[in-house]
Amino acid sequence: MSMGHYTNLTDPRTELEVVRDWNGVDQVVLRSPRGAYARVSLHGGQVLSWRNDRGEELLFTSSKAIFKPPKATRGGIPICFPQFGNSGTLEQHGFARNRIWALDEEHPPLNQNDNNSKASVDLILKPSEDDLKCWPHGYAFVFVQYVFPFLL
Ligand SMILES: O=P(O)(O)OC[C@H]1O[C@@H](O)[C@H](O)[C@@H](O)[C@@H]1O
């Protein structure tokens, strides 16, 4: 699999790999030359870990987190869509946290003119028929680009 299609790495020293988690879901792992680290799961398109170059975890994950679909992971950076909390008729924080996202190969980088060293991960969620039945407001897809500025 060509990783270059999935991320916009402006620092060629950055290591990137796609690994499979214990549920068979892909995760994108980024490592900077100085040891900073990020892990993004395609389950929910969620950032699960972000560590600085001193190895310190910058994101909270609950000790009660359940890392198994269809339960959303409690912690990291979740994508709450199309509702937050119980503000609508859907499951808490919407269904996007419980879907398997895809790495987006087609979207052009949003930060094309920014020469700072960094890496980004592009993710896309396309609605299923069932999604459109329970949330019939019509949308083509949800696109998310995470930009990690630690890769210096
Ligand atoms: O427990 P979940 O579904 O992962 O949601 C995370 C948290 O989301 C918050 O919005 C709620 O106030 C918390 O009660 C909840 O624990």
From TrEMBL:
InterPro entries: Aldose_1/G6P_1-epimerase (IPR008183), Gal_mutarotase_sf_dom (IPR011013), GH-type_carb-bd (IPR014718). GO terms for biological process: carbohydrate metabolic process. GO terms for molecular function: carbohydrate binding; glucose-6-phosphate 1-epimerase activity. GO terms for cellular component: cytoplasm. It comes from the Eukaryota. This is Glucose-6-phosphate 1-epimerase.
